[in-house]
Amino acid sequence: MSNDVASIPALALILFMPWFLILAALYWLYPRQPRNAARLRFDAIALLLAFAGCLASLYWSFGFADRSYGHLWPQILATSVGYGVFLAVLTAAFYLRRRMLSL
Q1: 1 domain-assigned
Q2: I need a labelling partner for 62 at 20 to 30 A (CA). Which of 4, 45, 73, 85 fits?
Q3: 15 within domain boundaries
């Protein structure tokens, strides 16, 4: 079973990559103004943190999943947790950036 595709935790990242890219592009582009160096730096850091958090949570949740629910359960759990972490980081960054831009 070690060669089974479902045992690769990064599969969730590969499958969700198009959706993550869409969300990242929307985060990067909205709002259009102001677009200064500080904002670009903040957005780049936020996107890197979202990606790193997603990747770390994928491996963590895949390792701690209870395999008694089936062979696919670790992959399902990793996908769900990784997606949630990615969204949580981007949502927090969106509101923090909004607050910083209004100052």
Answers
A1: no
A2: 45
A3: yes
Radius of gyration of the chain (CA): 16
Of the candidates 20, 12, 10, 8, the one whose C-alpha atom is nearest the C-alpha of residue 80 is: 12
In the DSSP assignment, the letter for residue 103 is -
DSSP 6: G
- Cα dihedral 40, 84, 61, 6 sign: negative
pLDDT tens column, 21-35:
999 999 999 888 878
Using 50, 70 and 90 to split pLDDT, how confident is the model at 1?
very low
In a domain, residue 81? The reply is: yes
- Looking at the 3D structure of the chain, how many domains does it have? 1
CA distances from 78 to 48, 71, 85, 91 (A): 19, 13, 10, 20
On whether residue 64 sits in a domain, the answer given is: yes
Chain segment 34-49, per-residue pLDDT in tens: 788 888 999 999 999 9
Domain boundaries, position 64: 10-29+36-102
